[in-house]
Amino acid sequence: MYRTRLKQRIMESGLKQTHLSKMIGIAPNTFSLYVHGKRIPDVITAQKIARALNTTVDYLWPLEDGSDGG
Question: Deepest in the core among 1, 7, 31, 39, taking most CB within 10 A?
């Protein structure tokens, strides 16, 4: 599974997953896979989702490189 803040951001926005999936033009079941971290969207779709939720792709799907900064 992939780490995502998508579900949290959707709850904060007060929007429904089905509404968001229609807004950005993807199937609700595909959107659900993104929400639950089972799939990662392509770059364009990720940007559309981030814009619809008034946030950034980096916030929704943070990088996990395992580095400790040093």
Answer: 31
